[in-house]
Amino acid sequence: MATRQSVLFSWDDVERLPELKRLSFVLDHLPDGDLVAALEAKRGRGRDEYPVAAMWRALVAGMVFGHDSSASLLRELGRNPALLALCGFDPLGRQSPPRRTLARRADGTAEAVCEPSPWRAGVPTPWAFSRFLSNVVSLEEKTGAVSAMVDALRRRLMDELPGFGRHLGYDGKALSSHSTGKRKAATGRTSDPDADWGRHETGGVDAKGKAWTKVKTWFGYGLHLVADAEHEIPVWFEVTKASASEHAALSAGVDDLFAKEPGMAARCEDFCADRGLDGGPLKRRLWDVWEVRPLTDVRELWREEKEMPGHDPSQPVRRSLAADGGGNVLHSGKGEVFCRCPATGEERPMAFQGFEADRGTLKYRCPAAAYGFDCAGRERCLADAGSKAGDYGRVVRVDLAGADRRMFTPTPWGSPSWKRGYARRSGLERINARLDGGFRFENHFVRGKARMKTRIGLAVAVMMALALGAVLAGRPERMRSLVDPGLPLAA
User: Fold this and answer.
1) Distance separating alpha carbons of residues 138 and 140, to the nearest angstrom
2) For residues 230 and 163, is the Cβ–Cβ distance under 8 A?
3) What is the pTM of this model?
4) Cα dist. 64→60, 391, 457, 477 in Å?
5) Is the pLDDT at 285 greater than 50, yes or no?
6) Phi-psi region of 90 (alpha: psi -120 to 50; beta: other; left: phi over 0)
């Protein structure tokens, strides 16, 4: 008598594989209950060959495993029964009960005949998955269901991670549409009517003193991302047309974020952004309204002196700090404060002594007195200023109320604390790199603003869910990992 051969492994063993464990890890921490319930209500009494919850898990799996299209995901489901089962589909497929019909005989009588129904594979059909994805996009467009998961995860991370939100930053990213941007002759429209052309120009001076300019253009959208720059976790996002202003998006984003999360506004100490976001109104609002120190690189915009006859390009441009243009205390276009020795004409950076929040002033001190070296014009400098500081040296205060807030901020440009804070901005660039590489936004097939926002929102939610799970598991050092959350496999 033949005996049944025992299986070499069970599905429980397969589910311990790291890839599937990672998907389970995300699903366990993704606050998707309301979204799935809304999708169930939308389906109502419609066909339920592929359960809503299973379709949703498959959509999340496509994001977790970096599939750039629905077709790629469905192919993976077709060759990976363990993943199919984890999502909630039947790996063996199913067949509906046979149908009973009446067949006519040649003599005119009838007999009952059972017709077998076709066998249906467990993998969703492309058109079924496409309809489901359209329902998710429609739900996000009407109710913001995917974005709501980001809000919920942000609150959980604030509860579980005490330093979360203390150092925030902003970065914009070009999101090219799958459309080429060419208009059809018959309709005059592109294949992605929601998108438009964006242009980003950067420039500078190389080591040889030669000016350079780089211009990037793309057809599609713009991603505006606010993130915790220390932990490299997104906290807010928005998708706009490519031509939309980053200044306007950032200003609205900060107000929206802090209005939703007053606790984060109270917790946040500083906010970094690159040179392209340099602007007085935003810096003023960050400090005056939210008491958040802006750490934005400063552009040198002074042109008058550079266009004057006889100007030496090798010499830096300085202007007087005094309102009347007199005195020997000067400042640069980036807000640096210098003193010019009355005896020798030598310029030296004054010693920054900190921001006096009660006065709203930046305090600077005579560099000779602060650093202990001789200055030939020290006594004359004190006399000209009417100062009786003595050994402590002359003190200069810059009142923010009357200063150019683009250049003068509570944390001055170039100071050690500014450099430490601004260096954290690289965390935003690494988040964008994960979106491009791990989530395949550099090679996608998305058209339409609503679809793009839904896909971005899901990617952001997955990143935040991985971070939350790592923190709850006691492995916060793994919160940035998209591949290995750092959890032990099930025993």
Assistant:
1) 5
2) yes
3) 0.86
4) 6, 64, 13, 20
5) yes
6) beta
